[in-house]
Amino acid sequence: MTSIESSGGQGGQLAEMNGFANPGLPEHKPRITDSSPTAERLAERQIAAWFIVSMIGTIWFIVAYFLFPVGDSGALVRIHTMAIGLGATAALAGIGIGIILWAKTLVTDAEIVEDRHDKGGGTEEDQAIALEILNQAKDESGIARRSLIRNTLIAAVAIAPLPAILVFRDLGPLPGDKLFTTLWGPGVRLCKDIGMIPEQSDIMPIRAADVTIGSAFHVIPENLRDSGHPLDEKAKAAVLLMRVDPNELNTDPDRESWGVDGIVAYSKVCTHVGCPVALYEHQTHHLLCPCHQSTFDVTNHCKVIFGPAKRPLPQLPIAVDDEGYLVAQSDFTEPVGPTFWEINTRETNA
Ligand code: FES
């Protein structure tokens, strides 16, 4: 048996209908919009205005996406991100604020008590009451009679998912051969990363002697600045360099020469869906990806020990040049980044 009690309004009438006493809820205090048609109309227009803000945000997202393409410079990436971010914020906040305002000003705010249902299916009487409650909610929200709010809300919600089409479009096309090669190659020096796209004069090669046990660096290739697409190339070539006590490394025999006295280098691009692996726990020698918590063991060639990643981080073979700087022996020997459908195509096509 279901019953409803309330201190006022339709809930109260329903409670009286079912013969229940008021359990002591405070008296309902009417809001200005309950008594003033002018305030009610104003609130209605304010709510509709927020839904219109949402629509403008959605349209701005789509326009900004094409107006400010990503480009190859850090400044263009920032402008693109800010412009579409502004649109997304307005689109979602407009709907959210409008609904909150609607609930606060126009939806009936009388407090209602509903008894817990008995176990098992409801009786016909319960079902009739449930139907009555639904109709009551429809009346209280005013969705049927407030056409301005209803229509702007429907329009805002209908176009809000459109930016997702553009965002999903950016996931494609498949990378093909692009992840098979990076800027690393024989003799390319490992340099500290000190900016979005460092100037040539800012690129600082790393001496093996300066890498202490327990330290970790984010590293880029020295030839990054010469690349025609520095941002893309930087993203693919990003490397984490760490120095571990050589006695703690379980090195495969065929990779004995890939490190330098405990200094090892691994791709920073997570093999799950490509986030930057950014956290190094130097006591456990674990690398953590912040996106979905994949964890890689540096002492075991960055094998996956936890999380959704399916393969180890690719290792960059390194050595020391005549001047004591760390250099790559070659490019990565396998594709960097997420496992993808075409990952074996190079072998197949070769
Ligand atoms: S991208 Fe690294 S765990 Fe998902």
Automatic annotation (TrEMBL):
Classification via InterPro entries: QcrA_N (IPR045603), Rieske_2Fe-2S (IPR017941), Rieske_2Fe-2S_sf (IPR036922), Rieske_Fe-S_prot (IPR014349)
Domain Rieske: 236-327
An annotated Gene Ontology molecular function: monooxygenase activity
Keywords annotated in UniProt: 2Fe-2S, Cell membrane, Disulfide bond, Electron transport, Iron, Iron-sulfur, Membrane, Metal-binding, Oxidoreductase, Respiratory chain, Transmembrane, Transmembrane helix, Transport
Any one cellular-component term (Gene Ontology): plasma membrane
SUPFAM superfamilies: ISP domain
CDD domains (alphabetical): Rieske (cd03467)
Transmembrane segments: 47-68, 80-103, 148-168
Keyword Cell wall biogenesis/degradation: no
Membrane topology: Multi-pass membrane protein
PROSITE patterns hit by this protein: RIESKE
Subcellular location: Cell membrane
Functional description taken from the UniProt entry: Iron-sulfur subunit of the cytochrome bc1 complex, an essential component of the respiratory electron transport chain required for ATP synthesis. The bc1 complex catalyzes the oxidation of menaquinol and the reduction of cytochrome c in the respiratory chain. The bc1 complex operates through a Q-cycle mechanism that couples electron transfer to generation of the proton gradient that drives ATP synthesis.
Family: Belongs to the Rieske iron-sulfur protein family.
Name of the protein: Cytochrome bc1 complex Rieske iron-sulfur subunit
